[in-house]
From TrEMBL:
Entry's family note: Belongs to the thioredoxin family.
Name of the protein this chain belongs to: Thioredoxin domain-containing protein
Organism lineage string: Eukaryota, Fungi, Dikarya, Ascomycota, Pezizomycotina
Domain Thioredoxin stretches: 1-109
Native source organism of the sequence: Hortaea werneckii
Region entry Disordered, spans: 218-239
Metal-binding is among the record's keywords: no
Keywords: Disulfide bond
Cited InterPro entries: Galactose-bd-like_sf, PITH_dom, PITH_dom_sf, Thioredoxin, Thioredoxin-like_sf, Thioredoxin_CS, Thioredoxin_domain
GO molecular function: protein-disulfide reductase activity
Pfam families associated with the record: PITH (PF06201), Thioredoxin (PF00085)
Length: 239
């Protein structure tokens, strides 16, 4: 029995990305010959490596889910995307069974190592534990997973830093783990404005809800007198 999840909508895809540590997605078309040729390999990997909440294999029909295909700039079929913690980490274009097999099995090995506690550096992120800089107010749950990440729109975002999904990662910010790197770390897990000091964020949710509070993590600003390019922490927030 196939373990592959057929994506039926953008909201469905967002839910899958939020519910599984690793997601592998096959963007295909019914008329695509190479898609049909590589499909048995993909299904075999899915049946062997699928693990609930850890590794999920999905497939997206680009003719039926054009909005999803457009969101991820899919221009050739098949295209395989691999996501970790909701973020795209690898893209394989074309029917390349060897590259697909190697990439997926490497991720499966990483997931298994994390489950066994062998990866101490990334243990909190890989185990699915959510880092919160401050506890949610009493009787209010954390609703980060309700953010519709496909509908995010950030204006004046510096493309060399984190992307639109970065603020919603569940792992501890790398800059907090290494205080010597105020504006950097092993990952680009922060966002900055680009051409001026303003950064506009449009953040939709998957359902209607009432928002009680917003948690923002930032580091103290550096010495602005010595470097005009030193990042500054937010001073004014407008909703």
């Amino acid at each position: 029995m196939s373990q592959t999840v057929t994506i039926t909508s953008a909201q469905h895809f967002t839910q899958v990305l939020n519910s599984s540590r690793i997601v592998v997605t096959d963007f295909y078309a019914d008329w695509c010959g190479p898609c049909k040729a590589v499909a048995p390999v993909y299904e075999q990997l899915s049946s062997q490596l699928s693990r609930p909440g850890s590794i999920t294999f999905t497939k997206v029909n680009t003719d039926m889910q054009k909005d999803i295909a457009q969101s991820y700039n899919i221009t050739a079929m098949p295209t395989f995307l691999i996501f970790k913690a909701g973020r795209e980490t690898k893209r394989i274009r074309g029917a390349d069974p060897k590259a697909l097999d190697a990439a997926v099995k490497q991720l499966a090995q990483e997931a298994a190592t994390a489950d066994e506690g062998g990866n101490a550096v990334e243990s909190s992120a890989s185990s699915g534990a959510t880092w919160l800089g401050a506890a949610a107010p009493r009787n209010y749950p954390d609703i980060t997973e309700q953010v519709d990440q496909l509908g995010l729109d950030f204006l004046n975002l510096d493309g060399e830093k984190g992307d639109k999904k970065t603020p919603f990662q569940t792992n501890r910010p790398s800059a907090l783990a290494d205080k010597k790197t105020v504006a950097g770390g092993p990952r680009n897990d922060w966002i900055e404005s680009d051409t001026d000091e303003q950064l506009m964020l449009f953040i939709p949710f998957m359902c209607t809800l009432k928002l009680h509070s917003v948690h923002i993590t930032s580091l103290p600003s550096g010495d602005s007198d010595s470097d005009d390019e030193t990042p500054m922490r937010p001073k004014t927030l407008k909703f």
